[in-house]
Amino acid sequence: MRLVETPLAGAWVLELERREDERGYFARTFDAELLAAHGMDGRVVQSSTSFNRRAGTLRGMHFQTAPDEETRIARVTRGAVFDVIVDLREGSATRYAWYGTELSAENGRSLYVPRGFAHGFQTLVDASEVLYVMSTPYVAEAARGVRWNDPAFGIVWPDAPGGRTISARDAQYPDVAA
Prior knowledge:
The chain is mainly β. Helices cover 6% and strands 42% of the residues. It has 2 helices and 14 strands, in the order ββββαββββββββββα. The protein has a 6-stranded antiparallel β-sheet with strand order 1-2-10-7-12-5, with no helix packed on it. Strands 6, 8, 9, 11, 13 and 14 form a 6-stranded mixed β-sheet that branches. A hairpin with a 2-residue loop joins strand 3 (19-21) and strand 4 (24-26). The N and C termini lie far apart (40 Å). The model has no long low-confidence stretch (mean pLDDT 96).
């Protein structure tokens, strides 16, 4: 597994180092010791899957509040998504900055999302599935979100030729300044 820094301190892209032969390939997708050596939380206490039927499905921008803040690693096991994080940390030099990258079953990349970041994605193809591992259990009372198209962030989402599918809850999250 290869770690690639993003422009947002503490957030990383995890790339596969594939060992290939005539059968296919083998690659490590998680290494708690490697993450810890780079100052990341490699604890995993919960794992979840998000299956999305249609291209253009947008989920986000989600986070949990203290004391239930979580780190998460998102990886696509089927299909492809444009995965986005936003730095919400008080006092951060990159507060309200965003970073987006394509995660797909084909490229095998994962995104490490540190505490204090909002996270979301838009599917790029039908039948996309995202696997999450989290450092803290989901706590409904701590679950929050900010609006996916908040002008304070200026996220540039991919076009969604068939239109976007977004839940009423995600569409109604407030702007960060609200």
